[in-house]
Fold this protein.
Amino acid sequence: MSDLQVAPWILVIPVKRTAIAKSRLAAAYPQHRPELARAFAVDTTAAALASPLVRAVLVVTDDPVVSADITAVGAYAVPDLPGVGLNEALEHGAAVAAAEFPDVGVAALSADLPALRPAELTAALKACVADRNFVIDLPGTGTTLLAASPGTPLDPRFGVGSALAHQASGAVPVELTTIDSLRRDVDTAADLAHAVQLGVGPRTADVMSLVLGAATGTEGLAC
């Protein structure tokens, strides 16, 4: 890079319309599932922006409320023009990032990391020294981060078994043992309980307060 003061990564975060997102949380949180999905995305985005290695965050979404929320914390909203799936959304976001920031690496980040710590994200990005690297989620089968160096196609292969799919595509796993907040994506109630133990961001904490209020019947908290 010619300008050593420029942070070397652009992060692309895909976010579904929250009306349909996080369906596996519906049984445990039927009234709060959409709010939780939005909160996860905002807390993930804010934590990513706090990393000194992140120059910008592009959130690919067709949800206008998410767009407004992430713009308010300093990210860019990119419409999901393909509108046909997660990997296509990421490829679109990566193309936009490469066009705007051609000399900067592009990394895809899960939107479901409400406990994400900027320092742990920074450590993982520092470890991304191959052409393509990825971070395996805590269950050991999925991917929470996929990073490609400048000029290298992102080639996302998210979905069931994405860890094996990314490794088979030539991406190199990041071997760090102190990045649980980056590896703790949330799909289930048990995942969320663990994220809360790690310490979730303020938006997620606010929604969890609503959940607690609804569960205990606290006046004015249930929604």
The two ends are 50 Å apart (CA to CA). The chain has a mean pLDDT of 89. Helices lie at 33-49, 64-72, 86-100, 118-126, 162-168, 180-183, 189-198, 202-216.
